[in-house]
Amino acid sequence: MKLESLNAKAETPTPAGHRGRARRRRLARSIAPSESTPFTGRRIPAYNLLSETVLARIEDQADWILRNIGVEFRGDRTALDHFAQTGARIDGERVRFEPGHVRALCATAPSEFQLHGRDPVRTVTLGGDNVVLMPGYGSPFVSDLVKGRRYSTLKDFRNFVKLAYSAAALHHSGGTVVEPTDVSVNKRHLDMMLAHLTLSTKPFMGSVTAPERVRDSIEMARLVFGRDFMEHHAVMQANINVNSPLIYDDTMSTALRIYAEAGQCVCVSPAIFAGAMGPLSPAAVAAQTLAEAMVGIALAQLVRPGCPVVFGSFHSTMNLRTGALTFGSPEANMTTMALTQLGRRLGVPVRSGGGQITASNAPDGQAMQDSTGAMWSTLLSGAHQVWHAAGWLEGGLVMSYEKFIMDLDHCGAMLKLLQGFETNEEAFGRDAYFETGPGENFLSTKHTLRHYAAANYEPQISDAGPFETWSENGALTSDQRATARWHQMLNDYQRPEIKPGIQAALEDFVSERKARMPDEWY
Amino acid sequence: MKLESLNAKAETPTPAGHRGRARRRRLARSIAPSESTPFTGRRIPAYNLLSETVLARIEDQADWILRNIGVEFRGDRTALDHFAQTGARIDGERVRFEPGHVRALCATAPSEFQLHGRDPVRTVTLGGDNVVLMPGYGSPFVSDLVKGRRYSTLKDFRNFVKLAYSAAALHHSGGTVVEPTDVSVNKRHLDMMLAHLTLSTKPFMGSVTAPERVRDSIEMARLVFGRDFMEHHAVMQANINVNSPLIYDDTMSTALRIYAEAGQCVCVSPAIFAGAMGPLSPAAVAAQTLAEAMVGIALAQLVRPGCPVVFGSFHSTMNLRTGALTFGSPEANMTTMALTQLGRRLGVPVRSGGGQITASNAPDGQAMQDSTGAMWSTLLSGAHQVWHAAGWLEGGLVMSYEKFIMDLDHCGAMLKLLQGFETNEEAFGRDAYFETGPGENFLSTKHTLRHYAAANYEPQISDAGPFETWSENGALTSDQRATARWHQMLNDYQRPEIKPGIQAALEDFVSERKARMPDEWY
């Protein structure tokens, strides 16, 4: 029921401007971190779906895969040589490991490390009680309710870097937020890096699609952060996708090795749809993901012991009657929760498959049902980094401007939830009971007045107003309300400062590289 | 990314009709309970948001409230006398308790009991590892995408009883699923009971709005179940709302006493919006809910020791600037999780506030974002019974036909998730690795063929197909697709059998009662 009778009372101005504002604010903060309070890390326990026994069984299956089937490094002799030197069995391009061997190789990976932002206040920590949310990744299309669905361009890329920079609930600028399809394939990385490095100050991802693009990405980062600093500090992240099942192609393993040599963060993400790139069960997908990811993490450690890594995963389910990929399914959500536990046991930061993902073709009820459930499984199970936390639609084919905004509201809500709530004396509000009594309301108690401004998370586009007002205002659904919000965010966007010399150096680098190469579109 | 390349393969007919079907089905069941498999209870652990220390602090605050403020029973001397006899302090209509006193009075309440369906296969167990999902409750309006928003009628009431009966994911017929506003207020309960008892065989709720309506409800149930059976078996449930803060009005406490005397299930649900009917914090709302609910549960035990009870709650947050009630907020979800833990510690089945609730005015993205998050908090924290699991819109003012269908999909998904997944040998699918190898796909492995039909939960209206097909089919959003589904469910509905004598007795009872009373509309 709407509590209509309360409206009048709550709408009368509250005496927030009077004496005691600072104290009220202090108290408010002490019982409920508001959205404007920076997220300071998870303060609620992670949910453990699986028992230790069951986790050990999945780890044993990962060992079984690595011993009996193995992993292939196609076209990367250097990677195979690294493993050969540790005593692994090499057979052509296939490498097999005795149980426990790969896990032991992962032991030098740090459990927690910083990913530095160009502005130090944007530096994030991966691991521990920290949670880092990122926008979607890799969509060749964008859509919005004004212009519809279309190939994404560099302008869209820059827009999403700006939106992610402006979003309080995102801590990371992402990587290929959308594919800038109007730029030739061999030059995209230059424009993408330029955008991340100049339009945002949040951490970002570099290119992985060819060795020279990896090197360009690192070179551009060095122009901003300095070669010396980057020798011992991670400022960028690389997404190394395993070509599941059980294949590292040389593009990926080479990119992994170059980033690891440079001491930059390597996130190893197997990509498994249950029944297609692995057997059809959450247990099997979790075990195979663990096996595949550990091998990549081990390679990073062999290249450079102590290299910061993230245990990644990308997995989901399919409708096995139609072949359509499905997201946010209960089986996928359980796999996500299992993988987070497995990654935490491995002792490295976890990017758990999940995020706010959906196969829906519109930012509708299904989209948010899928996305919200996937996000709960991701965050409650204790993932440290969440990719695809905003914008993802149509199984990742589309980055939706409106869904981006809708997802941000839920990101903020989940960050609030991860901080738990206080049970101190002020939280219980005993004084309010003496002001009121049975049957009387608490709206005008001093306790409510002390806290009303900061107690509750305030989403941007949710509408809880009466039906009549909503109808008079055009009966806009949440996706329709989101249109105004992303326009406003882009209008309000303020470009962060950058030293003119650095800006010029970056632009010169891009121009020079572009001039040297003819456009290539594959 | 959609895995387009897999479509062709997956669309070719699979040999499900061939030999080994029974064995495949058996194996499939052994690794993944499918939607058609009846839900057999939670097999994953409950999430504990709060530590024992924090829970004890909230329990202490509940004790503080009961000792220092107390609860009023307005106009119900009998209730006060019950408490007086236990040594509680009575002051006018106020009763106060020493710490621990009320909790001790609750000790005779069973931790687990059955609520019998007219068809024994529909009998549910409340408590333990069981989860009972129910439709929404109490809406004066209904809406659908064809006819729009309107006052609900008896026809709508009957429709929702039929839909809940047909829904595999709902275990209970609910109570006042919608208000049949075309029937006079003093006769509604007769038509509602008749619908629950004849159109469904699932457990249901009786009227609480006046003592004679309570007695009519019990009498009608006795016509079906028999007086003797009901003396020792619960077949119906009563929703006793506390008039929070800290008030039981005599309508509610009298209804509670009559149901308890009859040995029927009493669910005691305080109703607290943080900052209005209690102090503004999750901790305070949880403590006050516990205090208020324990008093009602204690009264039921004093009336009839061993009376089956449910620890209920209804709570949420408000936008304190506008007075609008908000649902699915992080603060409300945390309160839900806290209350489930507190109820489990009290040792009685828990109906935790939550369910699939929203303040949204349309079955849009916001509606499903709110609802999905609230449902995760409810079910993951271990609630035994979930009210408002389907249909709720506009803060409960509206029961939406389309949202009912959308919610059902998520109910089914969550029931699948609550059953966890297997990690036995078959689940790991080792044989499939020997059939394939690195880089090869698993779609046509024997393991996938054994499991593809039953491995994954299949929602009814989710669409994971390509954008092009979806567009050609009219670009229907999930709410629009739901319209066809509820029409189909009503068309396919088959009325359960009932002995003609019982049907006639019920109808005679209703006619006779109606004939004795003039219509009253208040």
TrEMBL record, chains A, B:
<feature type="region of interest" description="Disordered">
    <location>
        <begin position="1"/>
        <end position="36"/>
    </location>
</feature>
<dbReference type="InterPro" id="IPR010426">
    <property type="entry name" value="MTTB_MeTrfase"/>
</dbReference>
<dbReference type="GO" id="GO:0032259">
    <property type="term" value="P:methylation"/>
</dbReference>
<dbReference type="GO" id="GO:0008168">
    <property type="term" value="F:methyltransferase activity"/>
</dbReference>
<feature type="compositionally biased region" description="Basic residues">
    <location>
        <begin position="18"/>
        <end position="28"/>
    </location>
</feature>
<dbReference type="InterPro" id="IPR038601">
    <property type="entry name" value="MttB-like_sf"/>
</dbReference>
<protein>
    <recommendedName>
        <fullName>Methyltransferase</fullName>
        <ecNumber>2.1.1.-</ecNumber>
    </recommendedName>
</protein>
<dbReference type="GO" id="GO:0015948">
    <property type="term" value="P:methanogenesis"/>
</dbReference>
<keyword id="KW-0808">Transferase</keyword>
<dbReference type="Pfam" id="PF06253">
    <property type="entry name" value="MTTB"/>
</dbReference>
<comment type="similarity">
    <text>Belongs to the trimethylamine methyltransferase family.</text>
</comment>
<keyword id="KW-0489">Methyltransferase</keyword>
